[in-house]
Amino acid sequence: MLNVAALAELVRSAQPPTLLDVRWTLAKDGRVAYAAGHLPGAVFADLDEDLCGPPGAGGRHPLPDPAALEAALRRLGVRAEHPVVVYDAGGSNPTGAAARAWWTLRWAGLRDVRVLDGGYAAWTRDGLPVTTEIPEPDEGDVKVTPGGMPVWTEVEASDSRNTLLDARVAKRFRGEIEPVDAVAGHIPGAINLPAAETVDENGLLKRIEATEPAGAYCGSGVTAAQLVLALYEQGQDAALYVGSWSHWITDPKRAIA
Hints:
The protein is of the alpha/beta class. A five-stranded parallel sheet has the order 5-9-8-6-7. The radius of gyration is 18 Å and the shape is globular. The mean pLDDT is about 95. It contains ten helices and nine strands. The relative contact order is 0.17.
């Protein structure tokens, strides 16, 4: 993680990091938010189009094809051995978009990737400058090498020896509501830890812990990345079940709690 003051100093330096704005919601209005104002020098990365594969049997936000991801990152100006900072809207109810971007880039083999703690909300709360100017980054030269982060499939997610965390809100976990997927409920044995519990009232990351080996899932592997990030910041390795609930329910033979 990177706090606002540290990022502001880096942005003013002679070698600023590559800044990716990954604001995202289910309404897919991140680009509109970006156009209305963003951090100086930030490039908009579309979580759906740039950082995930097309929805289908693998879930709503499956792993991207490595070649497609490499092309997208190069278009966004990501360079080999150059730091990247990602941010989303921030706030007390995290979407997990910045965490999923962080996770995806690290999965792709990039090591120097950090998330702006508190996101865009923290940046503007501190009165730092924003702009509507759209930068045109030089073509990057990053090379994607998958395998940099642990990934769980439905096999590990259903293994009772593992700690499986469900990042969705409690009502979705309990199956009382399901606004997105066709089936309500949760994976048997999962523990509910809503993503909102990983941040304080200002959207800054809090300490959480889980018994290892641990993994996280949500509806489609976006919000769950917030739990993986929070655990990583405390020195715990956690896996991401990328397909998550949207993949789990594709097989009617899989149990539902």
